[in-house]
Amino acid sequence: MKIIGIVLLVVSFLVALALGTQNQEVVNFNYLLAQGEFKLSLLLGIVFGTGFALGWLICGLLYLKAKMSASMLRKQVNKQRQELDKLRTDPVKE
Fold first, then answer.
1. CA–CA separation, 45 and 56 (whole Å)
2. Given this model, what pLDDT does residue 51 score?
3. Residue 79 pLDDT more than 80?
4. Where are the alpha helices (DSSP H) in 23-93?
5. How far apart are CA 55 and CA 58, in angstroms?
């Protein structure tokens, strides 16, 4: 499964490079605060890289949250298992 992910990443990078070499036109780009003239290949690279970084950041944060939740639940289960084992071994008091 890891190999498929790496292959997809390399293919995506190669597609971005191919698009970059074919698009050397200068375009006017209006963004929120100002505007500028950029080569289309540079603009595509920046947008691709930013999207890639944001995707990794979001997935990483969600993964970290899931790992922390699993760790907390695992501790809770171990604590409850110890309580249950103790209740099973203690004699019944009347």
1. 16
2. 93
3. yes
4. 40-89
5. 5
Token representation of residue 2: 């890891």
DSSP sequence for 5-19: HHHHHHHHHHHHHHH
Task: Write the single-letter amino acid at 67.
Answer: K
Q: What angle do CA 67, 50, 7 make, to 5 degrees?
A: 70
Tokens of 45: 């690279």
Q: How far apart are CA 42 and CA 27, in angstroms?
A: 10
Distance of alpha carbon 13 from alpha carbon 28, whole angstroms = 24
Angle at 79 between CA 85 and CA 91, to 5 degrees: 25
pLDDT in tens, 8-61: 989 988 887 787 777 788 989 888 888 999 888 888 778 888 998 999 999 999
Q: Would the pTM count as exceeding 0.90? A: no
CB 38 within 8 A of CB 27: yes
